[in-house]
Request: fold
Amino acid sequence: MNAAPQVLIVGAGPTGLAAALFLTRRGVPVRVIDAGAEPTRTSKALGVNPRTLNLLEDTGVTAAIEAEAQAMRALRLHRRGKPLATLGIDWAAMGAEHRMVILPQARTEALLTVALAALGVSVERGLGLTALSQTADAVSATLSDGSTRTVPVLFAADGAHSVARKALNLEFPGDGWNEPWQLLDVDLTGPAADEGWIDLRPEGPFVCLPFSGKTFRLIGFGPPMLDSLPAGWTAGTVHWRSDFRISHRMVERMSVGRVCLAGDAAHIHSPIGARGMNLGIEDAFVFAACATDFLSGQPGRLDDYGRLRHPVDAAVVRNVRALTSAVRNTSPAADLMRRLVIPVVARTPFVLNRILKVGMGLDHPVTLR
Ligand SMILES: Cc1cc2nc3c(=O)[nH]c(=O)nc-3n(C[C@H](O)[C@H](O)[C@H](O)COP(=O)(O)OP(=O)(O)OC[C@H]3O[C@@H](n4cnc5c(N)ncnc54)[C@H](O)[C@@H]3O)c2cc1C
Reply:
């Protein structure tokens, strides 16, 4: 007979799947539910950073990701269409044990799901959390099929519109920007398959990242991106097109009694820096350690989770907001600063590595105590 679940994981995005994997490997029985009838096929995240690859190493998922993913070797920076600097990445100098790789989020989720299935855990789909309440001894979750499940701990990884966060009446303070950003996954000839391309234009940033094979991801704002491709590039099939707006928000607390929040349910920020999914997986890693201790009789450890993660995640939201502010600023003063500052930064490894570490997840240690 299966042991009764000790942790109900709400949401099977990368954060929930990673938590399920880390907990199961620690011997904690889990139940994973997701409101979606099927896994999402579109991919928001592309960059899997060295920190994530480090945390997933023992699960075998790192090897699976690296076998399938594409390496990104350099970032070419332009201003008004003219080359400004090429940022080569010195992995050793940054203390990275793995390189940043590119893999569509849907594939990362699929590889996490396969690893979880190998441990006998599957996601119950089409089943959402609708309400929750808790006492000093347990959490009761009401589900979309009308049933109620009572568990010792609930892990809320239910994304930016988190039902759990709202049920706990937690504020999600922060701000949002009005301009609509464009996202296109499109076949291109012209760009190198292992380099990122950023052009800081007076009308808004133009970012091109390798997606997979001949497909690239374009992100930016301003004129339609396909109408303003760099000289010599040509576009083919468009696979996905979406508009999104950027917000930066950080939940006021990440643990309340026996409920812990993680990933986009707890913090959202711009995709510049490629941190969201990676940060959620990091939350999951720390949560698994704390929840295992809590369930084996260390009552303060769920509070520890919130205490450990909140300052780390809040700092990432702040840093990514600052980085994105610099990228989206179209003022003449910002344009002049870029022309003067970026070439200098590109030639100053100490400063460059500090900035790159934000994207690599290596800007802070992962602390469990
Ligand atoms: C354009 C773009 C590019 C990005 N690029 C990157 C990148 O390169 N690298 C990176 O690290 N991050 C990136 N991100 C961010 C990343 O996609 C998110 O941070 C990541 O998906 C968060 O994972 P999550 O598991 O916390 O939440 P989600 O992926 O949102 O998953 C939440 C899950 O919960 C389920 N759910 C929702 N409500 C309920 C409910 N009531 N009950 C049960 N289940 C529920 C949903 O169906 C979903 O499966 C990008 C984001 C965008 C928009």
Q: What stands out?
A: Residues 7-70+105-176+247-335+355-360 form a domain with the FAD/NAD(P)-binding domain fold (CATH 3.50.50.60). Residues 10-16, 33-36, 44-47, 105, 128-129, 157-159, 163, 183, 244, 263-264, 271, 274-278, 280 surround flavin-adenine dinucleotide (CB under 6 Å). DSSP finds nine helices and 22 strands in the chain. The longest helix spans residues 301-328.
